[in-house]
Write a structure and sequence with these properties.
Number of helices: 6
Order of helices and strands: EEEEEEHEEHEHEEHEHEEEHE
Number of domains: 3
Strand order of the largest sheet: 1-7-4-5-6-3-2
CATH superfamily of the largest domain: Nucleotide-binding domain of ferredoxin-NADP reductase (FNR) module
Length: 275
């Protein structure tokens, strides 16, 4: 989705990027992936700004009296060939349930891109493991595509409650090797992502993960124990998206950091998690 927009949030630009207020002029395409997940594809008549894997969008939710703040949504994919921005949305509250009701052609107001990004591997031969749980798989698709574009071969380890909750499997399979765990054993290996046999069989040079905090802490514990570089994409509650309201603060070894501005991606070495 691109912007005809007013470039507004000035230049507090994270990592040299400007923030934009974008109005998807040509509207949205909405695809239902499950009873509570939708894939929203946004486009416009102007080119998309540069967006990096791990960054997010603040979406304004209209037509709901109970939703006052924008909703932070991870960037699922950026298709520059078709000038599309993809957002994978889980309906978990009034705001995201309203987004689930979008129809083709509806317009969506977004602030983008926000936050920092995952660290790209410096060598295409590095073995990179991307671990996602639930809707936390969203930013890993775009990250995997960027790794593949540089000649790498990412491995995805996706966790879900059951087979019906595994999101975008076919899209991930087009990018790299896909491994799955489900809590009920209905697909892949039974258990949690950190129970998957691949972790005992292969060594990875780098791990990036996004999903529920207990899952990310378990992945971080595995990475720390095995001396593997690891980044997590934090999902702290956010409001402003630019580091002004301080509601998303995370305690780190360098002091309190705003996840929306100095994250959401952080190296586990900077966190105070007890791993």
């Amino acid at each position: 989705m691109k912007t005809d927009l007013a470039r507004i949030l000035s230049v507090s630009g994270q990592h040299g990027l400007f923030n934009y207020i974008a109005q998807a002029r040509n509207g949205a395409i909405v695809e239902a992936l499950s009873d509570k997940h939708v894939l929203i594809k946004l486009t416009d008549d102007k080119p998309l700004p540069e967006m990096l894997p791990g960054q997010f969008v603040e979406v304004r939710v209209d037509n709901t009296p109970s939703t006052f703040l924008r909703r932070p949504i991870s960037i699922n994919n950026v298709d520059y060939d078709h000038n599309e921005l993809w957002l994978l949305v889980a309906a978990v509250g009034d705001g995201t349930r309203q987004l689930q009701k979008l129809q083709k052609g509806d317009r969506l107001n977004c602030v983008l891109p926000l936050g920092n990004s995952f660290t790209m591997p410096t060598d295409s031969t590095h073995k990179v493991l991307l671990v996602g749980g639930g809707v936390g798989v969203a930013p890993l698709l775009y990250f995997g595509k960027r790794i593949k574009a540089m000649g790498g071969e990412p491995t995805f380890l996706l966790g879900a409650r059951s087979a019906k909750d595994v999101l975008e499997r076919e899209l991930f399979e087009q990018v790299g090797r896909v491994l799955i765990t489900t809590e009920d054993g209905s697909e892949g290996e039974k258990g949690f992502v950190t129970n998957h046999s691949i972790l005992a069989q292969e060594h990875f040079d780098r791990i990036s993960t996004c999903g529920p905090k207990p899952m990310m802490m378990a992945v971080a514990r595995y990475a720390f124990k095995n001396d593997i570089e690891c980044e997590v994409s934090l999902e702290n509650k956010m409001a402003c998206g630019v580091g002004a309201c301080l509601c998303c603060v995370e305690k780190t070894v360098e002091g309190n950091k705003c996840v929306c501005k100095e994250g959401p991606v952080m190296n586990i070495k900077k966190l105070t998690w007890q791993i």
